[in-house]
Structure formats: structure tokens, C-alpha cells
């Protein structure tokens, strides 16, 4: 039974990549009965009627899936932020990182327009902070292709989504990696503004030896699926220290002898990261229904 990966879903058809070939498949009626919707990124078993057409028979268990964009089995999220224009925001970056970590997706931080900074700019300090925490940070320039090769290396063999604010340079990065795409600058970001209920098909496109979703990542940045207890596990520097807290299940807020709060006091954890943590916890608290 041949197996492959769905790289595009459009009008009831699923385009399954099997080696070098793409087979146009329909889903079996049994999926509807079981309420299973195959997603782009799913690994599937299919039956080929001929060299170009077939039927999907089963969908393998997913390691993760996203709602917007609707993609499954994502290995990596490339979080694209600009050093300036728009201004670099650690709050937004940490929000993205928590969402990514909660989905068990590897984050890769890519900071564009680094050449526009002056030497004493604080963005360089943030780069150092995030690297110290253990994140991979790639810096690129708006004028040259510095950093593009490093980014391309990280795409190899992985399914990636790109995410970030409008105007940070997502299209420019993808164009630099695959010039034949000729994506219009801002085209990817602008599609976010088409309204919540507008469907736009998602496609995984080959790039640098991997697959990249040609759609904006994470048009929704709320913490709907997260509980308060889950948030600290999305901060690697807290995970590293939580075993040293006096209380098991410490939320690192008011508890005594908390190793995380101590690390913040000792400047081992950047204070802005801890402030964002408290902010996200508060947001989840506010979401709880009140009786």
C-alpha cells in the first residue's frame, strides 16, 4: 500500500507527494462518517487508480496540528521579526514562542534588517538573551543575502511554517531561498486581512530540501488550548530550574523558595521574559468562566 504526504488540499481533492510524484486523491466516505478531515502535512496511505489519481485510505496519527494555518506534522516554525520597521517586540516573540512550544514544534528565530541598526542597539542584547536560553537565532540583512544560507540549511528535511508580523520580510526570505516563487512582498501577510471566514488553500512547497507552508502562520495568537499550569513548560529556562523549586507544581508566582523567581532576581532569567510569563498567566485566568 503506497504511503505519502498531503502537500495540498483543494476543492475536495488531496494532492499526495509520493517520492517525486504527486497523486491527486479523494478521501474515502468513511472519513466523513468518522469525522476525520485530512490536513495538509498528514501522512496517509492511499490506493492509486492510475499514475495520477487515487483514494486516501487512512491518515496516520499526527504529532501536532495547527488551526490557522490548517497544517499537520509541522517540524519547525520560522518566527520572522525585524530589527526595526516594524520595531522588534519581545512580547510578541514570546507569545509566538509559547504557542510554538505548546505544539511541540521547534522554533527558529529569524531577525531581518539587522543592517539597519546602530551598534549600541538593544536588539543585539535580545539576540544574546534568546541564544543563552537555547533558541537558534539567525540574523539577516535587508541589503545582502547574509544569513540566507544558514536559514536554508535549517529548512532541509523539515516541514516548516513561517510566521511574523506584516512587513518583517517573510516573502523576501522565501524569494531569496526560491527565486522562482516570485512572491510579492507583503502578499503573504496581506492575505491575513482577508477576513476570518475566507478560506485560502494551504500548500507545502519544496524549498531548500524541505517543505514550507506558503501561508501566513498563526493568524490567531490566543492561548485557547493552554492551561495556567502548562505555560511554564513553554519557557525552557523555567523548565531547567523548576525541579529546584520547593513545591512540586510551583507556578513561580507567589510560592516561597521558588528557583525561577530566584533566577530572575539573580538576572539569570531576563526580567522581561518573566513579566511576559505573568502576563500570559493573567490572560489565561481572565479567560476562565466566572460563576
From TrEMBL:
GO annotations of cellular component type: cytoplasm
GO MF, one annotated term: rRNA binding
Record family assignment: Belongs to the TRAFAC class YlqF/YawG GTPase family. RsgA subfamily.
HAMAP family found in the cross-reference section: GTPase_RsgA
Coiled-coil segments: none
Cofactor(s) needed by this chain: Zn(2+)
Gene: rsgA
EC number(s) from the headed UniProt entry: 3.6.1.-
InterPro entries hit by this protein: G_CP_dom, NA-bd_OB-fold, P-loop_NTPase, Ribosome_biogen_GTPase_RsgA, RsgA_GTPase_dom, RsgA_N
Transmembrane annotation, as ranges: none
Name listed for the protein in its UniProt record: Small ribosomal subunit biogenesis GTPase RsgA
Major place of residence: cytoplasm
EC main group: hydrolase
PROSITE patterns reported in the protein's UniProt record: ENGC_GTPASE, G_CP
